[in-house]
Here is the input.
Amino acid sequence: MNVAAISSHADRIGSVSSGNALELRGVTKLFGALAAISDITLTVRSGERRAVLGSNGAGKTTLFNCVTGDFFPTSGTIRLFGEDVTHFPAYERIRRGLRRTYQISLLFGGLTVSDNVYLACRGVSRGRFSLLRTRRTDPLRRRVEELVDAVNLTTASDMLVSELSYGQQRQLEIALALAGAPRLILFDEPAAGLSPTERSELISILTSLPGHIGYVIIEHDMDVALRVAESVTMMHNGRVFKEGTPQEIEDDPEVQALYLGHGGD
Amino acid sequence: MAIADDTHRSITTDRAPSWHERIPAAWWVLGAILLFMPVVANDFILFQVFGWTFILGMIALSLMFLAGYGGMVSLIQMSVAAMAGYMVAIFGTSGIAEISMNLPWWFYLPLAVLIATIFGTLVGALAVRTEGIYTIMITLAIASAFFYFTRQNYGIFNGYTGFNLVVPPQLFGVDWRQPVPFYYLTLGCAVLAYLAVQYVSRSPFGLALQGVRDNPRRMGALGFNVVAHRIAAYAFASVIAAAGGILLVWQNAQIAPGTAGIGAVIDILVIAVIGGIGKPIGAFIGALIYVLLSTFAPDLLMSLGLSGERFNLIIGLGFLALVFWSPDGVLGMWDRYQARRLKRADPLIGGDAP
Here is the structure.
């Protein structure tokens, strides 16, 4: 695992910022009469690692979509690093240090691995409209190589993404999320469909991220979620049901009854 | 995918090959043939076949850039070309002395490209809010509005008759409308346009455009303004279409509403699809096939005792056959032939295996 590359990149970002990375106040998203999420109030501190748990249909991915700007909430406010971004388009939020991965890999199948990472790096830097090709010696290209190394895809660097295995595509998703200077990453079920080995690699990538990068992770695998998070939010029927440390959540009889399907004996 | 071939890079070479080593031998041969064509070809072939091929190829290339790299099938490209042609006639010299302003070439040429580019970009700004079939419909609607507007407007576009005697300026003592100079002029412009598209496809802008084509939502989540990127693609494509339009008006020495009539608008799409919309060279292959068919099919039909007017039937049947057997055009057929040949030569899985 080459996390040194990420760390060295992260060192350039500067000191750990204080305050809250994400603040949601009364966020509701209606699809017609259906409330996918309802009156969500949630605070994630800078550098905090939070897991969001809940059964299917609990509203976890909708919550992510509202935070990233894929959907605008029906009501409520979203603040990112102290700034109200409720009505900002997705790309403006990304430029403020927010990143996300998707439950189903949304990659560019016709481009190579390094071109995918290159786009992620370019998206949060200047020169997005440049008609001049990037030289191989450009610092951005070097950063691309660092990120490709960091997620163990060095040998697949020049392969088309459509030729990668599923596990490799999930790793590439993470590389895209780490591009630029991320401050808060939303991981949407990053371990889904991974083999046990790939799962432990994922855990090691997440736990070795630099301290100032906070993340919120949706994960069905309790083992993964509880190992990589320091706090947990349980969602149920579009609402926040419980918040606490992994241990508190694990020991909570209501959570056990609801999520694990048995009482807290 | 469009740039699959370009993106595979060898990682085993000891040193990076220089630019001339990276160009395949077939390209050198093609370059030599095109360069020395005037030695063997007559004036008709140079002016009518190749001149027209390069011009239509450039306009189809602008569509290829939008559709192949941006996933946006625009039917406005011929109208953008005609707009540039009209501007040359209006600001430059033509047989309609009461409208043409007789401005110098160094002024009206950039102005024509600029106005056509603004026109194409504005249409793009409307069209990028739609996807797929709706992009085709909205650009077709604007293209037909442009056709009817030019036909009915006499103050600027001189209505049904349009402009005649629109010829290139005499530069460096050369009459650029003579077959050989015109051949080299159109060849030079076509090569420049081709190289520009090829180069830009690997630039940050071009790569991002391909990202937008593959997955616009993800591009937004990477920090790209997808709408702005698509509009900028229309602007870039409009410059190429405008250059093609200027050459077209010079070749015909006239421009009229029919230049960008619905038939001509659709022909550009047919050309791009015949050639193969995934690669820039496809536009020129499609244009050559189209020009050869529309030039020689009437003779062929007449020799069979049919009316020469029916040459569109041959183009139509050819188009149907092609999209049926090879939806990715002639280039797609070529790629499949190459893949089969390589497979046959493979000692493990090929036909020659023991």
Notes: Strands of chain A lie at 20-31, 34-45, 49-53, 75-80, 83-84, 98-100, 184-188, 214-218, 231-236, 239-244. Chain A has ten helices and ten strands. Residues 130 and 228 of chain A are 39 Å apart (CA to CA).
